[in-house]
Amino acid sequence: MQAAGSVEAAHEIARANGLNVTDELMDGARLTVPAVVDRQIVAYYRINAIKPATALPMDTFSGGVEFWRVEQNFIIE
User: Fold this and answer.
1) How far apart are CA 4 and CA 36, in angstroms?
2) Distance CA 59, CA 19 (A)
3) Are the C-beta atoms of 39 and 17 separated by less than 8 Å?
4) Contacts 24+ apart (CB under 8 A), 74-77
5) Is the pLDDT of residue 43 over 80?
6) 40-43, long-range: CB < 8 A, 24+ apart
7) In this model, does residue 40 exceed pLDDT 90?
8) What HEC string does the chain produce?
9) Residue 2 and residue 37: Cα distance in Å, rounded?
10) Sign of the four-CA dihedral 63, 68, 72, 75
């Protein structure tokens, strides 16, 4: 979104960089962005310093049912 202003552009960006949309990027990786789809969205993200994260380190999460493991920290009685 912040690069091209459109979710649909993710596939074009991935293809232009020899990647799949699900590939993890290395910190500092530079990507080629083929075309900006919506300049207003790009400007909004830039002006408001919005930089969405798609992957976060596991230590970012405090826990919850989706992190419980049966018979380890979730005991069934």
Assistant:
1) 4
2) 27
3) no
4) none
5) yes
6) 40/5, 41/1, 41/5, 41/6, 42/2, 42/3, 42/4, 42/5
7) yes
8) CCCCCCCCHHHHHHHHCCCCCCCCCCCCCCCCCCCCCCHHHHHHHHHCCCCCCCCCCHHHCCCCHHHCCECCCECCC
9) 11
10) positive
Count Cβ atoms below 10 Å from residue 5 Cβ, excluding itself.
19
pLDDT range class, residue 52, cuts 50, 70, 90: confident
Cβ(35)–Cβ(41) below 8 Å: no
Tokens of residue 39, six digits = 């300049």
**Mean pLDDT, residues 3-18 taken together:** 91
